[in-house]
Amino acid sequence: MLEIEKINVSYGDLQALWDISLKVGEKEIVALIGPNGAGKTTTLKTITGLLRPFGGEIKFLGIVMEKMAIHKRVEIGISLVPEGRGLFPGMTVLENLEMGAFTAKGRSCKDETLEQVFELFPILKNRKKQAAGTLSGGEQQMLAIGRGLMSKPKLLLFDEPSWGLSPLLSKVIYEVIGQINSSGVTILLIEQNVRIALELANRAYVVENGRIVNQGNSRNMLNDQHIREAYLGTESV
Amino acid sequence: MNWQVFAQSLLFGIFVGGLYGLAAVGLSLVFGVMKMLNVAHGELLMLGGYATFWFFSLYHIDPFLSLLPSAFILFLIGMGLYKGLFSPLAKLHEEVKIKNSLLIGFGLSLVFHNLAIRLWTADERSVSVLYSGWGFSLFGLRFPFIRFSGLVLATIVILALHQFLTKTYFGKSIRATTENWESAALMGINIEKTSMISFALGATLAAMAGTIVSVGYAIHPAMGLEWTLKALIVVVLAGLGNIGGAFAAGVLLGAVESVSTLFVGPYMEVVGLVLFLLVLELRPQGLFGKSIG
User: Fold this and answer.
1) Could you tell me the pTM of the whole model?
2) What is the DSSP string of chain A?
3) Cβ–Cβ gap A87/B173 under 8 Å
4) Lower CB count within 10 Å: N or C terminus of chain B?
């Protein structure tokens, strides 16, 4: 579904990604893990078009899209739940969700999707007239996810969905991500909480210093010695 | 001093303050969406005033009617200015962007100012309609028809803008872009188009203010800077990007300036600037802005 071939991205003179290649297949959950500053967010930003690569190729459903405008990528089915949620704090919960359905496709089935989102997160329905900035951290993450679903994406990207959440809430959010995937949405997520990400994902890539250093089935990765030592804080048995 | 003189100055201050508010709302809208300060905003207001003046002088169209074509002309000029001059700045880093937008704005204001002198001379002009002298009295206060209807019109325009921004999809996308443009783009909102329309709307609001100024007051080529300054003071009083607050702050500035003439005479301009400095010092988020953090 998503094919990234050797992309290189830089911020000014500073190169952040070096020949990153990755693939996400239809209905998969793929995790991108790695330490802070490794280039995970940069990779997602490049997929959404917030950053432009200076080399390499990105294809989504066979469409080449390195030069495509950000809003066009939403139209063809890519949605991002951004780092730190990126809500519109002064707008109401309902308005935030409406903005999620801005594309023609999203708007045509807005009411229906809205019902689905409220079913997934009933609390949002009770708070729909409230300004998004007044929600708790967990509710804000739910709103960000709900908003990401409003455009009816084929591929949903998550940037640190457990950021700032308690372990219990993270678990809830990850269960929801699993449910979203079962409803047919492909998922690419990046996460610092490596265990929770690997437990949900089918496959994973490890990014370090802007390069992909390892990849594979996430079950195997949970048992990988380097990953256990570097990210899970446990010695291999 | 008797209360009637005081109340009359207050009333006239509110009339002119409505126009400050209208001028500031356009500047605030543009700043909110694009994080660019268009210091040629006052010149756009001047052009709107001249458009109305010429519609009246050449074709005898009533200014309250020519408001619409004048506004439309400025909408188109706004789109052109955005496309030609401001849009290339959009990709720049925020700090560089605002500096460059200031330079372009100052350049534009000089061009428009001198163009206006060339084309229409430096004379002060005013649209004098048949009903210029009409008015009514209430509680012993004088309500000149033109200034009163100018305030009513400004209020209607602001309310309409408010409805547009809170009730329509496109209006909401303007607010979303103001709050977080990256997220807005990720929703599928076309930021370039939203910015262009917002800039054109800003010019339209300036033109409407200019029209009302040309009827109730006077227009001349050098008026732009004066109005940009008023609009800036009001935007700072209200808090950057706060559109509803800008109108209220405009009325407040008008009222304070006007009443202060009773005490400090011609130094009333200073009072507005002192108010500006006080707000910057004591409440930098603006009178109606939310405190940060």
Assistant:
1) 0.90
2) -EEEEEEEEEETTEEEEEEEEEEE-TT-EEEEE--TTSSHHHHHHHHHTSS--SEEEEEETTEE-TT--HHHHHHTTEEEE-TT----TTSBHHHHHHHHT-SHHHHHTHHHHHHHHHHH-HHHHHTTTSBGGGS-HHHHHHHHHHHHHTT--SEEEEE-TTTT--HHHHHHHHHHHHHHHHTT-EEEEEES-HHHHHHH-SEEEEEETTEEEEEEEHHHHHT-HHHIIIII-----
3) no
4) C
What's the topology of domain B3-282?
ABC transporter involved in vitamin B12 uptake, BtuC (1.10.3470)
Nearest to B184 by CA among A109, A129, A70, A108: A70
Has residue B130 got a pLDDT over 60? Answer: yes
Q: What's the pLDDT band for B292 if we cut at 50, 70, 90?
A: very low
With H, G, I as helix, E, B as strand and everything else as coil, classify residue A9: strand
pLDDT at position A118 over 80: yes
Q: Does A193 touch chain B if contact means CB atoms closer than 8 Å?
A: no
- Cα–Cα distance measured from residue B246 to residue B252, given in angstroms and rounded to the nearest whole number: 10
Task: HSE, CB side, 13 Å, CA atoms: give it for residue B169.
Answer: 15
B190 Cβ under 8 Å from any chain A Cβ = yes
Residue with tokens 């994406």: A153
Of A147, A40, A32, A168, whose CA–CA distance to A86 is shortest?
A: A147
Alpha-carbon distance B217 to B49, whole Å? 10
Q: Across the interface, do B185 and A71 touch by the CB < 8 Å criterion?
A: yes
Q: Could you give the CA distance from residue B164 to residue B58 in angstroms, rounded to a whole number?
A: 33
> Which residues of A are less than 8 Å from B189 in CB distance?
71, 99, 102
Percent of chain A with pLDDT strictly greater than 90: 81
Look up the ipTM and state it: 0.90
B12 close to B258: Cβ distance less than 8 angstroms: yes
pLDDT category at A82 given cuts 50, 70, 90 is very high
